[in-house]
């Protein structure tokens, strides 16, 4: 039997260290002294109102922004100054709040794009379609087919993603990130715009990724019910500054979080 996620987190070295990071734009502090760690099987959530700095943290992690101060260490490697494609090659994958798929390509083709870091053959082999190119293509397609099964995408595998329901497209984007075989998965509002049934399906897949694939995740999400149900730990932010980091129940009861979300002193809980 596998260890519970909370025990596993405490027994392993953190996969990510985000240490005293500062990021400003024209004097506006987007990330102001933020520090946190993510454990080897942890589902770590970041919450906060719009403009709190959540997406800026993701952009620092993925190399889109370079902080003025601080340290970001992923799997023992310092990420500050590394370009996005190098960080992706180290094993960090990301989904986006707004769907970033090729709508005219099929589900399988979009998922295969997530395998590009694992393809080692060149153009001549690809054109000739023999030897190494053929072997690698078959092996990478097998990985993608496993993801199709895992995310229950079988009935849509040959459809152009632009013809699919919104919730299925979000699932395909998650699958493309999984196709990279990430060591850390960044989920940027994975249930934004979904109905209740789609949200429940996505929540189930997120838990399966952690518990069956052993992939740690950082989740940014406005759906507080989802965050409180799924996350091992939560960091709440406001105006680029951390308010509190702790278990979902600790964060939910914190006065600073309550004020940031509701403008009240002592309501019983934070809700959506």
Describe the protein's architecture and organization.
The protein is of the alpha/beta class. The chain has helices at residues 5-11, 54-61, 84-90, 107-113, 123-128, 132-150, 166-179, 196-213, 224-230, 248-252, 255-262, and strands at 16-25, 28-38, 43-47, 69-74, 77-78, 92-94, 184-188, 217-220, 233-238, 241-246. The protein is globular, with a radius of gyration of 19 Å. Mean pLDDT is 88; it is low at 1-11 and 265-272. Residues 16-264 form the ABC transporter domain.
Mean pLDDT: 88
Separation of the first and last Cα atoms:
35 Å
What is the count of distinct domains?
A: 2
Cα Rg: 19 Å
Low-confidence stretches: 1-11, 265-272
Fill in the CATH topology of the largest domain.
Rossmann fold
Outline type = globular
Instruction: Tell me the strand percentage band.
Output: 15-25%
Q: What is the total tally of β strands?
A: 10
Largest sheet: 6 strands, mixed
Helix content: 25-40%
Structural class by secondary-structure content:
alpha/beta
User: If helices are DSSP runs of H or I spanning 4 or more residues, what is the number of helices?
Assistant: 11
**What would you give as the CATH superfamily of the largest domain?**
P-loop containing nucleotide triphosphate hydrolases
Summarize the helix and strand pattern as letters: HEEEHEEHEHHHHEHEHEEHH
Protein name: Amino acid/amide ABC transporter ATP-binding protein 1, HAAT family
GO cellular component, one term: plasma membrane
Keywords: ATP-binding, Nucleotide-binding, Transport
InterPro entries: AAA+_ATPase (IPR003593), ABC_AA/LPS_Transport (IPR051120), ABC_transporter-like_ATP-bd (IPR003439), BCA_ABC_TP_C (IPR032823), P-loop_NTPase (IPR027417)
């Amino acid at each position: 039997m596998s260890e519970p996620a909370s025990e596993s987190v405490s027994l392993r070295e953190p996969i990510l260290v985000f240490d005293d990071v500062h990021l400003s734009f024209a004097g506006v502090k987007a990330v102001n002294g933020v520090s946190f760690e993510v454990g080897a099987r942890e589902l770590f959530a970041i919450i906060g109102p719009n403009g709190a700095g959540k997406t800026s943290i993701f952009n620092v992690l993925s190399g889109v922004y370079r902080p003025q101060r601080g340290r970001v260490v992923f799997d023992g490697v310092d990420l500050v100054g590394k370009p996005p494609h190098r960080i992706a090659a180290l094993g960090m994958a990301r989904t986006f709040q707004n769907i970033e798929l090729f709508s005219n390509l099929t589900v399988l083709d979009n998922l295969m794009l997530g395998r590009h870091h694992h393809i080692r053959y060149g153009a001549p082999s690809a054109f000739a379609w023999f030897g190494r190119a053929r072997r690698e293509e078959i092996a990478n397609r097998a990985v993608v087919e496993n993801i199709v099964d895992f995310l229950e995408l079988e009935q849509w595998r040959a459809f152009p993603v632009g013809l699919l329901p919104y919730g299925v497209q979000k699932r395909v984007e998650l699958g493309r990130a999984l196709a990279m075989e990430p060591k850390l998965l960044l989920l940027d509002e994975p249930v934004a715009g979904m109905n209740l049934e789609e949200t429940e399906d996505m929540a189930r897949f997120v838990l399966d990724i952690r518990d069956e694939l052993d992939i740690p995740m950082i989740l940014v999400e406005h759906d507080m019910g989802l965050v409180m149900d799924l996350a091992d730990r939560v960091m709440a932010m406001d105006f680029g500054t951390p308010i509190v980091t702790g278990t979902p129940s600790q964060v939910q009861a914190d006065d600073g979080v309550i004020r940031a979300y509701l403008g009240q002193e002592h309501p019983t809980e934070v809700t959506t």
